[in-house]
TrEMBL record, chains A, B:
It comes from the Bacteria. Keywords: Hydrolase. This is Haloacid dehalogenase type II. One of its GO terms (molecular function) is hydrolase activity, acting on acid halide bonds, in C-halide compounds. The keyword Heme does not apply. Belongs to the HAD-like hydrolase superfamily. S-2-haloalkanoic acid dehalogenase family. Pfam families: Hydrolase. PANTHER family: HALOACID DEHALOGENASE, TYPE II (AFU_ORTHOLOGUE AFUA_2G07750)-RELATED, HYDROLASE, HALOACID DELAHOGENASE-RELATED. It comes from Metabacillus lacus.
Amino acid sequence: MTSSVKAMVFDVYGTLFDVHSIQSACEKVYPEKGLEISREWRLKQLEYSFLRQIMGCYQPFSAVTRDALRYVLKELQLEGGREVEEELMNAYRSLHLYPEVKEVLKELSDKKLAVCSNGSRDMLLPLMQTCGLDSFFTHIVSVEDVEQFKPSPGTYAFMQEKLGLKKEEILFLSSNGWDIAGAKSYGFLTAWINRGNLPPEELQLAADFIYRDLRSLLDQQ
Amino acid sequence: MTSSVKAMVFDVYGTLFDVHSIQSACEKVYPEKGLEISREWRLKQLEYSFLRQIMGCYQPFSAVTRDALRYVLKELQLEGGREVEEELMNAYRSLHLYPEVKEVLKELSDKKLAVCSNGSRDMLLPLMQTCGLDSFFTHIVSVEDVEQFKPSPGTYAFMQEKLGLKKEEILFLSSNGWDIAGAKSYGFLTAWINRGNLPPEELQLAADFIYRDLRSLLDQQ
């Protein structure tokens, strides 16, 4: 990491919290289907957020996430209904924090720390507050305020405006390849937290740094 | 179908041609991996087109398709390289036409018939011409001319402008749920060709008609 960095902006879903920790809640309702539901649900959630951004039909991420769940249950021919939806949507508000997150954030107190999430406040705030993560950040930014989804340039611009810094003073961290591409395309410095040990996306927008998890941030200081 | 329809606009990939007929070409190069490559390749191709639309980083669909192939081969830890890429990209120019397409199009000669595809001309025209499908259509429209990807409203607006008709005089047909959502959101009449027997997308943009394949168009006349 370069010394010019004045703020670090973290994505939330997949980067700080494990979206696939939802699997056990899914498994409880649908035995032996937890893994498949969790995987398909995440893919559909992302697809719907991308499509809504392209069509100009914004809906809060909580609505998008519920729609995605409803689709996936129908696709897998599983019985849904309001009660199951509520249970699984609630589980999305208590995803597991990755184990190293707090210890790393504690060591980064010389920087401004922020989050920038596609999550709407009704999902994002309970998630952050339940595990006491909210206190680490000066800015908890939801794209809900601009009614756009990442990787739209407007979301990164909104984040920059909130921080009042130059693009090159902001290090944007995400484990989502599409989010890194969007942040890089906008002009931020980027660190891809490659938790899944995946190949880089073929979008000609390579991350400036690639880390296995957040611990590497401490080695780089 | 209502009698007010003056033009029928068909999507190409998945609607007229079976994108998964690529499987046998993949299988030839990578035995026992054909199905997985074909499925992942299509998903990544769509994801990259959506992301490029959102980020405002248009590249022709042929480049997007090649990038997607390159990613998938790396993800599946398969050896790629220029020669394999050329072979599989060429196979994408000779996808199988669905069996009923020509017989149905012949019967629809009282309407203006058009195609509107995310495909760039270097992919789309060889595909249409090789099987003699181009002669059925008055307009073969590639989004390349507006440098946007469906389901962006700009692509459907471009199609409408080419036809010179009112929105409600245009029936848009696609087997891709996201394409139907985009066309419906723009204001076209829509027919979802539900070849995969899938549940409708949960995007609150339901198709006006749902058909199992194109034959149903003749029953409805």
